[in-house]
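>> received
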Amino acid sequence: AAAREAAEAAARAAAEAAEEERLLAERRVAAARRVQAAEQRLQEAEARTREAREAAAAAREALEARAAALAPMLPVMRALALWPAESLLAVPAPPEEALRGLLVLQGLSRNLAAEAASLQAAGAEARRRAAEAARQAEALAAAEEAARAAVAALEEELRTARQRRARAADAETEAARRAEASAARARTLEAALARLLREQAAARAREEAEARRRAAQERAAAAQAASRAPPPPPARGGRALPVVGRVVRDFGAAGEGGPARGLTWQAAPGARVVSPCAGRVAFAAPFRSYGLLLIVDCGGGYHFVLAGLDRLDASAGQRVLAGEPVGVLGADGRGGATLYGELRRNGQVVDPRPWLSARG
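>> returned
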């Protein structure tokens, strides 16, 4: 009875720990969603601020150009405004020429008045554009502050998760690390994925053999419950875009190395990268020319490859939800950052666009 009670308590504790981990993962997904929303608002605010500043600069240039065009006429305008009759009579001329001069001056006066009105309108537009640029700068500062707060909250969640993972090492994680070490020795991405698939199949075979061995040795229900903790709950969630950005190279697009085998996103430096699916991290380490590489086993024979990360926030064997943060992008030296994503089914490259469009 005591053994049975201890086994049931251990099973309850394991189930509670698994449920707590699931809730923490969902919190990380929500925090990452807030970060990506803040990144989206920040990008939009930066674009609006840039447009407002460019419009204000263009308005100032138009004002200066119009003022420069009117500058040579200012003495004539002043003389006509102060002494119109004297200006007409300053040069002696026959009456018919004086009349023609009067008509010309009237036309010139109307043109100068129109130019003066345009100058005033240009000045008003320049002031309006400058005020709009100032408002957009304030909105940008607010968006930056919101993004910093969201990032700080997510970093705290990730720090807690790293501490929990450092204390927990199970057989599944060790198997994933062995598979990752084997894949890291491959020369190509195809070979690495093939090794991962072989290691996963071998790990499943070992688990089945171990389960049969335990089943044969178990003598009582209490011993069985004590020796077999419940497996972690399956990761839940649909699919998510891995980063906030725009696609700059589409699947199949021509390039130096042939048609693109995946998608390339342009994003802001430091942009948060999330798992595009629910599953298990099969690889998270540097790999050849890809830099930091992350491969998520999405189930059903699908693996999603993410390359170009500057920091990894996930490790091999970790179960992730769709939208859970797995890394951060660096800078590409041109004021931006790029993320490469590739989807494979049973080791073969497939177009990720229809798969990603079926987001939950």
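>> The two ends are 46 Å apart (CA to CA).
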